[in-house]
Structure formats: structure tokens, C-alpha cells
Amino acid sequence: MKQESPSPERSDRWERNIYKIMRARLQSKGTSSAKRVMKRLAGKEKRLMKDVNHCISKAIVKFAVENNVSVIGFEDLTGIRTQTEHKIPKKHKYHHSSWAFRQLQSFVEYKAKLAGIITEYVDPAFTSQTCFRCNHISRNNRNDLKFHCEICGYETNADLNAANNIEHRTRDFRYTLESQGCQSITHTREMI
Ligand SMILES: [Zn+2]
């Protein structure tokens, strides 16, 4: 049976939640056949996410090429994990520390490099609490998926606000590169 590739638009969170629910059910059963099914599911999930990540990374790099983007910014999740993990709400924790996101980053980095685009990892500290419009930082600005600045009243999707802040920090890096006369085609992250 021919399986269709998931489109980049499809939410990986949604897909993974299905696996999460199935895993929890099987775990509560605890039988050996349940364990076998769990193992099979893990493999399926891995393949699905790889497929999704290939689609998304392809779309990201395509967008970057079409819009002459020289640097793609990601939040650097490596250093802050241990200090912040306990602060991440439980329902976001699974998504936040997932290997799938790291895989997406590595796929983008690889494809971007082939297109002569640099991938930069920026400090994600307070990106979700900072107002993109007025820079006010407060925990109260964020309420789950909604962002509402308590000072200037700016309202948007919380992920979009954080992404804009990451883009802003990436822009600082891009300006530094450009001021040094660097061309993305000839410089990779390792060379900087
Ligand atoms: Zn504001």
C-alpha cells in the first residue's frame, strides 16, 4: 500500500500526540505483546518524523533561497536544558526536549549549507517572555499559546512572538557578518 508523505503543513505535535496516547495505553497494559507493539510504534514514529523533518527542512531552505536569506536562526537548546527543563510546562516538555526538533535543525543545517546558507544558533533566553514590539520582558506576557504584552498590549501567537525574537537575534549576527564583509557562500559556521 502506497503511503503518502506527510505535508510540511501537518503539525508534528499533533502526530506525535497520537503516538504519545498509544504509548501510554500500551504502557499501562504492561504485557509482553504490548511491549512488542510499543517497539514497533517507536520505529514507525521515528520514520514518520524523519519524513516530516525532511519536508519541513526542504521548505525552510527553499524559502530562504527564494528570499535571499543568508543566515537561518535557530534557538540553541543545548546549553539551557538542565536549568530550564523544570520550568517548562509538562505539556510542552515533550515537544521541547524532543530529538525530532534536533533532527529538524540538523536537516536544515545540512540542506542550508549545500545552498550556501549559514545556520546560526542563538541564545533562546527569554525569547518567549520578551515582547517583540517593545522589548518588555515578563512571565506574565505569555499565557500558553497566547502572547499579550502587559505594557504595550501587543497580542500575537506565542510561538510567533518567540520566533520573531529569534529572528531578531539572528539579524544581529547577520549584520556582524556583513560588516566584516563575509559572504555566506564562502563561510561556514566552523570557519567563523
Ligand atoms: Zn510590548
Q: Could you outline the blueprint of secondary structure elements for this entry?
A:
Elements lengths: L11 H18 L2 H35 L4 E5 L5 H4 L5 H7 L2 H16 L3 E5 L19 E2 L2 E3 L6 E3 H22 L13
Helix pairs in contact: 1-2, 2-5
Bound molecules: zinc ion.
Zinc ion (ZN) binds next to loops.
Tell me what you see in this structure.
There is one protein chain. This protein is mainly α. The chain has one domain. The chain is built from 6 helices and 5 strands. A hairpin with a 6-residue loop joins strand 4 and strand 5. Helix 2 packs parallel to helix 5. The radius of gyration is 19 Å and the shape is flat. The N terminus and C terminus are likely disordered. The structure holds zinc ion. The site of zinc ion (ZN) has 8 residues, from loops.
Largest beta-sheet details: 3 strands, antiparallel
In percent, how helical is the residue content?
40-55%
Tell me what portion of residues adopts beta-strand conformation. 5-15%
Number of H- or I-type helical stretches: 6
Structural class label: mainly alpha
**Lateral strand order in the biggest sheet:** 3-4-5
The hetero molecules present are: zinc ion
Give the ordered list of helices and strands: HHEHHHEEEEH
Essential attributes:
192 residues; three-stranded antiparallel sheet; two-stranded parallel ribbon; disordered N terminus; disordered C terminus
Can you give me a brief rundown of this structure?
By secondary structure, the protein is mainly α.
